[in-house]
Write a structure and sequence with these properties.
InterPro entries: LexA/Signal_pep-like_sf (IPR036286), Pept_S26A_signal_pept_1 (IPR000223), Peptidase_S26 (IPR019533). There is one protein chain. By secondary structure, this protein is of the alpha+beta class. 32% of the residues lie in helices and 23% in strands. The protein is built from 3 helices and 12 strands; from the N terminus they run H-E-E-E-E-E-E-E-E-E-E-E-E-H-H. Helix 1 runs antiparallel to helix 3.
Amino acid sequence: MSSTTEHRTDGRGRTMGSVLSGLAVAVGCAAFLGGFVWAALTYRPYTVPTDSMSPTITVGSRVLAEKVAGSEIRRGDVVIFKDSVWGDLPMVKRVVGVGGDKVACCTKQGRLTVDGTPIEEPYLQGSGPASPVGFKAKVPAGQLFLLGDHRSDSMDSRVHLTDSDHGSVPRSAVRARVDARAWPLGSIGMMQRPAAFSALPGGTSQPGPVQPITITVLAGAVLILGGAAYGPIARRRARTRA
């Protein structure tokens, strides 16, 4: 009788271990694959071809850019855009002005101003003025004024000031907004929204779902590994108890 009871206990232990193991692996696979599908639908990878956004994003860096409409772009965003006037190639720059803004540089302290408000730009390359060449522009409605963070080595809106759009590009030219740096390893991290722009009308944009996507993928991986390991462990414990 005792032997029969032990056999049944051992069987139930093995069955329960197999069920829990299979459930963990199944949920883990769903989370793992779902996270990658979510990322593919939301983000596009992009390799930065020039040093114009250094030190924020160095040449050759890999970034994750959220697919957003141009209407969602705010001041301070780093965007990927394509405009025929600029060469009809994908480019990455920072938005410093939107439709209606008066953008100028520089104040006596060497700062950029938007509608007369000095902008603190800690992301700039070097400690000099916000632009080696002074300029001013009125951004037309529905347009964006774009500058690189490496102001002495960036072909941006300042080069196109004499164009009909005063150096700006239409919001519809935006393909995506850079949300995170993915490579090299030492630079991995979220793209911060500059605090100086948050006080201006419209504020700054909100980060995309890169963090919850990462958590979902990691949680899925943990469940898969844990579930795969739990089955053999549960069966061994059941045999030991028996």
